[in-house]
Structures are given as C-alpha cells and as structure tokens.
Amino acid sequence: MIDFSRGRKVKFYYNDKVIEAYEGESVLAALYAIGYRVFSYSPDGERPRGAFCMIGKCSSCLSMVNGVPNTRICIEPVREGLRVYSQKGFPEVPKVEEVVEAETIVLKPDVLVIGGGPAGLQASLTLAEYGLKVVLVDEHFKLGGQLVKQTHRFFGAKKFYGGIRGFNIASKLSREVMDNENIEVFLRAYAYGIFKNGYVGVAVRGEKPLNLLVRPKAIVAGVGASEKMIMFENNDLPGVMGAGGAQTLMNEYGIKPGERALVIGAGNVGLIIAYQLLQAGVKVHGIAEIMPKIGGWFVHAAKVRRYGVKIYTRHTITKAIGRDRVEKAEIAMVDEHFQPIPGSEKVFDTDLVLLAVGLQPNYAFFSQAGAVMKYIPELGGLVPLRTKYLETSVENLYVAGDASGIEEATTAFIEGEIAALSIAIKLGAGNNKTIKKREELLDYLWNEYRKSPVVMRACQGKLKATVSEEEMEKIRRGELDGI
Amino acid sequence: MDPEKVIICRCENVTLKDLLDAIDKGYTDLESLKRYLRIGMGPCQGKYCLILAASILRRRLGKNYDELLLPKNRPPLKPIEAYYFLKPPKEAKDLEV
C-alpha cells in the first residue's frame, strides 16, 4: 500500500561490525531491520531491554554514539562512519581528549514553537502568515511528529486535511515550513527548560552542537505525548513494545516488527495497529482488552474481526515469557476489580507484545514553567489549565495538540491554529478578520467537531481543563487554585 | 503476578516489589519515593514510572491523583551533555538577566 523510497546507502559501525543502512533511517531502525532486538541492559546489567517508544522518550535504547554515552539511537540518524557501541549497565565516564564546546547563541524571535508535529507545524505556518518571526524546534531529525507514521486518510474538514494520508500531510506541511522565510527550523533540538526573563534553553545536537537561548514574546508548546506502560511480569522484555513504536518501524521505515503479535488494548490505536500488522504480514493472535467493551470505533473493530483476529474483552496481560526476547505471553480474564482470575490464563506463542494502553501528555515543560496543572483522566494525565484561546497560567505560554490532552491530529491542527491566531491578536499582528477567524474556528472545534459521540470523552476532559479568562486572571493572582 | 518481575521504572530498574516494600516502610508520597527509589530520576525523568507509582499509591491510600503531587520538574528536563554549558554567549550584552 505504501511505497518506501529508501535513501542513499551508508555504512556505520555497531560494536565494530559494519552495518549497511539507508540515509534517513535511525540507527535503531537500521539495526532492527537486520535482526537486532536487544539494544541495552538494565543499570545492573542483568535485564536485556529492547525497542520500546522509538521516539526518544524512554531509556531502552541508550547507547554510546561517537564516544557519547547514553545516546538514544531511536532518534539518532545513521551517517557514514558513525561508531555505535551498545551499553551494558551504567556506562563508564568517557575519556575525552578534545572537548567539544557548544556555541551559545541568543535568539529573539516573536514566537518559539516547541514540537514539529501537527500542532506545531500548523501554528508556525499561521504565525508566519501574519509576518511573525518564528523559531521552530523539534528533538527528532525530521519534522512531522507522529503524523509520519499515520497511513490512513484523515476524516474531517478539507481545511484540516480531510481525505489525505497522515504522512502525506506531514511532508506537505514540513516542506511549507522549511520554505517559509519567517520560520527558522532547528532539528535534533531539545528544549531543556525555561529560565528567568522567559529564556528557553534549547540543546541542538549535531557535528556543531548549539546551545540556543531563545527569548520569544510568546511560546507555543506542542510537545506531544508518551505511551503509557502497564504492570505485568517481564514488562521490560525485548519484544514488549509500545504500539506507536511498532508503527514507527512498519509505517515510517518499512520494517516488519515481528512474526506473531499480541495486542494489548482495544481502543482505536490497538485496533488500527492490529490491522496494520496484518497488512505487514504479521500474524495477530488477538487483542486483549481489560474493559468489558471495545473502546475504539466499531468500523475498526469490524475490520480486524473480518480478518479473524479475536478480541478478548475483560482480559489483560499477566506475563511475558522468554529469555532474551518475548517467546510467549500469557493473558487472563479479570474480575470486576480488574484482578486476574486464576485458572483463566491463555498462553500464546508470540514474539511481539504491543501495548496500546493509552498515551499521557508530556507535561514536564509546563510544570517546570510553573503553569497550574490538573490531572484529568479523560485527557490521559496531567495537563496545564488554559483559556479557550489555549494560553496557560504562565502568560504568553500556549499549549496545543496532545500536550493539551490526548485527542487526535485533526484537533492538534485546530488547536495549533487557535493558539497562533491568539498570539497574532495579542502581539498586534492581527486585525478584526483575525478575531473573526478565531471565533469561527472555536465554533467549529467545540460545536461541531467535538460534538461527535466518538470524541465525547476527550471533549469532557478538555472542558474540565479550560477556564474563562476571568478565572485565569484569578489563578494567576493566586486567588483561585483552579483544581 | 510476581512483583519482583514487574518493572515500574526501566531507567533505574525499580520493581513493583521495591515500590510496595518502600510504601510499607512509610514512603507514602511520590517525592520521598523518588528520593528513596530514584524513580523519576533516570534518563527519561519519570515519563513512565511516576504515573504507575501514583496509581499504586492511590489504591493503597485511597487518595485521588490531585492529592498525589508529582515531584517538581527541574531543568534540564532530560539529561543533556555538559558541553552545552561550557561557553557563554559571544555577546553577553544580548542576555538581559
């Protein structure tokens, strides 16, 4: 269904062995493609760890890259001659003969956009339209966020890319952002914190590392989300992977993640990953869902059932079994307190356990900035309180996309645009038309898009996280805790 | 489930047994669990473990999530190489601090 155009061939070294890879791949993807499954070990050196998140969030692929220990090889692009070594336990402090010093550069754009996913891309393009100077940073080596692994055509309005496949939207928007002279893009750039007077520190990796000190008038943080982990025996065994991790392998790099899979969680992500696995030629033993009902859309469930995939409701995973990688997995039925019922266990021969048990917003940047946060289960976890214009309790810090609460890419585009329009209005770059445009968007988002019953839960969550401007003023003055 | 085989925190290799034992010893908030077990202090800075630890505490203590304050996030939000901090900016006057 998808054509993978591979880049130029490059050679790098893994534990001194020559590895052939294609430009544009991550080191981890290149290694996975030729059969590697163990990428690091627990700090005591005892427990092998495999690929888990594949997007630079977890700690399961930390390796030594060109002499730098604890480097995440899932977001390290392959390059000719790169020297990569696996780590077993804590690495030794490297002996450095020549110290690389990162240049520190001060930048003062109008707006800093953190995260180049759907929210950040849409926000950047909208801001640039108003003549505002934007600095866009993303920790990955390419733009697009998780759009790059979405192979389905989007639903919804044409304006928000209805009818186009996710990865095609990603390449279209990335190109537009790269070509826009009002937007300066830094890739492999991690926003490590916010400091006095609104300076944001950004560490840019590469041959010439840079330390950016960015002092913008406003910030849009579309920092996305991370997959959740659940508890079962050997939940760290290589082969236990986030569903998104497997999507990265299959849909972004064209690599088959395994031969026989068990999926945990029958929400939309679980159902879609099951279907994509089948398309990639992976046998799917079944989907275990702890709730009595399937969480995802009926159409997706019907589709995988047609292929003979069994959905085990009221079931959860109790253990992964294997020495260095998953060989078997056990699920069991649960009682009304979600506890496994002894005697109800079923064991599958499988080399992949894919966790599709939900996402949680990446909250660290907001929390460090001092934003008032709230735990909202419907949104996946901790999120900053915000006005309907998406400004948090830290003035001029805006939130958009999954970081504002787990929804989907379409709402991320819309939120990105609302945040951008609000900033344009606040900085005096907009006019009455801008205000009208924002009102129309808000109306579409709240009174049309979020009225669909399938997004009701997320909509209720977003309502809980949204306060009026008067309430926000009180929260800022400390007269209201907002919780 | 054997709690010794359930990993709560991959970065610091903390098991469910470690966590339950710590709660029994009286470490009943996330901040002291963090200091005692190092959950949230590894390379991923608590992306996976804190929410798991919070769910266990919540069940044990019968509290809701908003009462279980998460440890403060401090910069750098994820470990970065020290060489980013070796050189001051060329034009120090650019930096109004």
Count the DSSP helices of chain B: 3
* Order of strands, widest sheet of chain A: 2-1-7-5-6
The residue fraction in helices of chain B comes out at 25-40%
Annotated CATH topology of the largest domain in chain A: FAD/NAD(P)-binding domain
Count the beta strands of chain B: 2
- Beta-strand portion of chain B reads 5-15%
Largest β-sheet summary of chain B:
2 strands, antiparallel
**Apparent shape of chain B:** elongated
Average pLDDT reading of chain B: 89
Structural class of chain B: mainly alpha
Report the count of strand segments of chain A: 28
At a glance:
With 483 residues, chain A is an alpha/beta fold. Helices cover 25% and strands 25% of the residues of chain A.
Describe the structure.
The complex is a heterodimer of chains A (483) and B (97). With 483 residues, chain A is α/β, with parallel strands linked by helices. Chain A has eleven helices and 28 strands. In chain A, the strands form eight sheets. Chain A has a five-stranded mixed sheet with strand order 2-1-7-5-6, covered by helices on one side. Chain A has a five-stranded parallel sheet with strand order 11-10-9-15-28, covered by helices on one side. Chain A is globular, with a radius of gyration of 23 Å. Chain B is mainly α. Chain B has one domain. Chain B is built from three helices and two strands. Chain B has a two-stranded antiparallel ribbon. The longest helix of chain B has 13 residues, at 49-61. The mean pLDDT of chain B is 89. The chains are: A alpha/beta (483), B mainly alpha (97). Chains A and B meet through strand 8, strand 12 and helix 7 of A and helix 3 of B.
Jot down its keywords.
heterodimer; A: 483 residues; alpha/beta; Ubiquitin-like (UB roll); FAD/NAD(P)-binding domain; 3 domains; five-stranded mixed β-sheet; five-stranded parallel β-sheet; 11 helices; 28 strands; 25% helix; globular; B: 97 residues; mainly alpha; two-stranded antiparallel ribbon; 3 helices
